Every structure is written in structure tokens, then in C-alpha cells.
Amino acid sequence: MQPMPEDWDRAVAVVAHPDDLEYGVAAAVARWTSQGKTVAYVLATCGEAGIAGLAPDQARPLRMEEERRSAAIVGVREVEFLGHQDGLVEYGVPLRRDLADAFRRLRPEVVITLTFDLTWGDEGPVNHSDHRAVGLAALDACRDAANGWVFPEAGPPWAGVRGAYVATLRPTHFVDVTATIGSGIASLREHRAYLEGLGGNLDPGEFLRTMAAAVGQDAGCEYAVGFRRYPMG
User: Fold this and answer.
1) Angle 56-73/181-189 helices, nearest 10 degrees?
2) Alpha helix (H) ranges present in the chain?
3) pTM over 0.90
4) Which of 203, 209, 178 is closest to 189 using CA atoms?
5) Is the dihedral of CA 30, 36, 40, 46 positive or negative?
6) d(C-alpha 23, C-alpha 195), whole Å
7) Span 178-203, pLDDT tens digits
8) What is the pLDDT of residues 34-50, one digit of tens each?
9) Which of 26, 41, 42, 83 has the fewest CB atoms within 10 Å around its CB?
């Protein structure tokens, strides 16, 4: 793994649900915002189908507010929800259009998203279909945003995305989060209702430190987050 380049000023992180970024990536976001970089969050859904026993119309505002508070802890002020249906996000033209529109408005140099692999690792569980759809669409929307003939109704083209970085178990690059792992943990803890819906058995500190320590061992630092780079050009 190589250190992820940090010669950029603005990034957009794209995921499917509230809490997705907080399972590791938020610690990297905290590092970047502490350097004066701007990071915006774009979420395909509002996470309304994510809490068993809590109806979507009740879960939606709750999870949106948890995500805003969580984002603020790591220095993120721009949080957008695209309103696709939680659990039923489809890869396709509508999702690509919404993401291209967001990139043209937010003008990132770097796009961050989560793995679109079928499984978590070679023998891990199947990755959520929403994650797979959003991760792949985020990469394609980088090119869509740059092409003025694609989605012309979404505003002037933006060809400034230099690379997409996908959080994955098969990384090519790493971000040293030793100094910001605490902020990442605090960010995950803001998802109280969601974590309680999972049974309340997850210790955010133990969970995130264990994951980041494993990547850090390969990266040569105490704690790290791993990404796979996809160049754009």
C-alpha cells in the first residue's frame, strides 16, 4: 500500500446509508478536515428501512439527524440525501444522474465511496445490494459529470475528479488515522438509535480500533483506513 495523496482541497463521499461512512472512513475524513480540506457527504437513502421495529416514517428523520450530528463531529458541514428508497436502491440511469448532478454542484477533486464487491473479502458475507449499486454508480458518475452531453439538465460539466477511492478489504492506498481515530469513534457513536436497533452489543471503540489496527499493521502505522484507487481521466 501507498499513502493516499493529499494534494487536493475538496472531496465528496458517496454512500448508500447513514452510518456507512462511520464504520472506518469517518476517521480519515476527520484527518482531512483538520488539514483544512472540505469534504461533503452524499447519501443515496435516508436509512429509513434500517431499524427493525421502527417504521420508515419514524426512522427517516431520526437517522438523518444522527448522520448530520455524526458528520459535524468530523468537520463535515454539507450532508445531502438523494431520497432513493432504502433497501431497494438500483444501479442505473436515475442514480447516475443524481450523483452526476451532485458532483457538478459540489465540484470534488476526489470521490470517496464504499466497496461494490459482491462479498466482504473472499469468504465474508454478501455485501448489501445498496452498497454495490451506489459504489459502482459513484465511479460511473465521475465520468458522467465530466461529459456535457450526458445529463445536460444537471448543469455545466465538471471534469475535475482526479480519482475515486473505494474503502475495501483489498486496498492499494492507506490513510494514517492514528491522530483521528477518536473522532471516528465518536462519529459512529452518534448513530445511537441505529446501534441500539442492532442490539446495542457493538462497542464502536473496540470495533473501529481493531479494524484500523489491522490495516495499520500493513501500512506501518498504528491505525489506518484502506482504499483502492481508481484513476479518472
Assistant:
1) 160
2) 25-34, 56-73, 93-106, 129-146, 181-189, 192-197, 204-219
3) yes
4) 203
5) positive
6) 12
7) 999 999 999 999 999 999 988 878 89
8) 999 999 999 999 999 99
9) 83
